Amino acid sequence: MTKDMIQITNLHKSFGNLHVLRGVNLTIAEQEVLVIIGPSGCGKSTLLRCMNFLEEPTGGTVAIDGVVLKNDASINEVRKEVGMVFQRFNLFPHMTVMQNLMLAPMKVRGVNAKEAEETAKKYLEKVGMADKANAYPEQLSGGQQQRVAIARALCMKPKVMLFDEPTSALDPEMINEVLDVMKTLAHEGMTMVVVTHEMGFAREVGDRVIFLSEGNILEEGTPDEIFFHAKEERTQSFLSKIL
Amino acid sequence: MDLNFDLIASSFPLLLAGAAITVEITALSVGFGLLIGCMVGIARLCNVKALRYLANVYVDFIRGTPLLVQIFLVYFALPGITGSRVDPFFAAISACSINSGAYIAEIFRAGIQSIDNGQMEAGRSLGMTWAQTMRYIIMPQAFKRIIPPLGNEFIAMLKDSSLVSVIGFEELTRRGQLIIARTYASFEIWMCVALIYLVMVFLVARFVAVLERKFETK
Residue B168 has what DSSP assignment? Predict the structure, then answer.
């Protein structure tokens, strides 16, 4: 039996009077690929961002590989192990692709420049961007930027990767190049939590899909169960709009 | 009216020497102001409440009072506390630096806040501390954006430094006053003084424009 990688217990998050997450309980196993779907404003991104404390929960706990997240210096230790990919890429525009990839391993993990460069090259190769090592982010297309962003997160050798709508800001013809990289990662056994509505991706590599509605998990199951045999009416009505 | 060209020619070197002192005060004040402004600007954005409060009080006080009054406070009021006379050079530099620091703090704060929040999130999500993210990610990007307003601040200080003439510090304006006191040639001398300021400001503005372009291409 595989061990639990992420354990979320009774998670609440409010922004002022807005109660976004309402007591979410969720366990994600090592090497599992979990896909989170749900209508806009249901708390998908907030839930994901609570998993590395970019949002600090109002109540409840999040544990990564057995370590309970706290809002103090210890959070940096946890974040080393949790890679994140953003909808809007968030590459560092004043640095080349290579510098983007080398910065955190050198400053956070303390590896030397040579080793950081080797690691960076390896992951650039993996995402098919080795020839753009010396380009600046603005010289790349959205799909290329997102692949670099994935490589940047991988350079920290994380145990978990979080993806926050990684293809929503992309032109349609670039979506697949990013999804292909993510599929490769999934096949290699990376633990992944992905907020996305890409059904093809979910069906091919997703182990489990959860449907989030009004701040809680309304329904969960395998991709086929959720996408084709949803029990809840709200899930069905949501899926009928996006499929 | 007849212009006394001999007087202009003989006074010009004296005025230029004064201009050199004006540049010196300005460069030192904006230099120290940069150090103060960088720290205070960051302090205004940090999550330590006491630091933020102190930084706000400093900026509000300096922006809320005239530079002339600040110069008087350092030169005339400070000796009342310390009991010893304040050197005019020290008074001029410290008053101008403290003044400049407050304005530059605002320039830094605005520059930092103009950087997309996603940059901070990306840095933090990679495990970097707040300070590391500031230093390697946010500040280098903010710095490009604050070059134009910093240039403005330098130009403003170049002209405002004329105020230190009131404590007898012999920069460009004070030199002009002294020559006029001797020769009564107000028109010639003030025209020369104005012209020298104008040329200095023009040169600084050009320099800033070159810097701006240099950072833009990167």
Answer: T
Mean pLDDT of chain A: 94
- Predicted local confidence at residue B217, as pLDDT: 57
Mutation target vs A (from B117, B119, B126; most A CBs, 10 A cutoff): B126
The mean pLDDT of A17-21, rounded to a whole number, is 94
Q: pLDDT tens across A150-168, in order?
A: 999 999 999 999 999 999 9
Residue B136: its chain A contacts at CB < 8 A?
A: 103, 107
Task: Give the containing element (helix H, strand E) for B101.
Answer: helix B88-113
Query: Whole-model pTM?
Result: 0.86
Count of H-run helices and E-run strands, chain A: 9, 10
Report yes or no: B114 at the A interface, CB cutoff 8 Å: no
Q: Do A82 and B126 touch (CB under 8 A)?
A: no
Residue A89 belongs to what H/E stretch? Answer: none
Query: Are B129 and A84 inside 8 Å of each other by CB?
Result: no
Strand, coil or helix: B153: helix
Torsion angle defined by CA atoms of residues A71, A76, A79 and A85, in that order, rounded to the nearest 10 degrees? 90
The residue of A101, A103, A155, A162 whose CB has the most chain B CBs within 10 angstroms, and thus the best one to mutate to test that interface, is A103
Query: Is the CB of B125 inside 8 Å of chain A's CB atoms?
Result: yes
* Cβ contacts of B214 within 8 Å, gap of 6 or more: none
Instruction: Indicate if the pLDDT at residue A223 is higher than 70.
Output: yes
**pLDDT tens digits along A39-51:** 988 899 999 999 9
CA B174, CA B21: separation in Å to the nearest integer?
11
According to the model, what pLDDT value does residue B47 have? Answer: 85
Q: Specify the 3-state DSSP secondary structure of A61.
A: strand
B83 in reach of chain A (CB within 8 A): no
Q: Measured between CB atoms, does A152 come within 8 Å of chain B?
A: yes
Q: Do B124 and A156 touch (CB under 8 A)?
A: no
Question: Which residues on chain A are in Cβ contact (under 8 Å) with B126?
Answer: 79-80, 83, 103-104, 108, 152-153, 156
CA-closest candidate to residue A94, choices B198, B139, B74, B1? B139
Contact with chain A for residue B116, Cβ under 8 A: yes
Counting as low any pLDDT under 50, the low residues of chain B are none
Q: Has the ipTM of the complex gone over 0.90?
A: yes
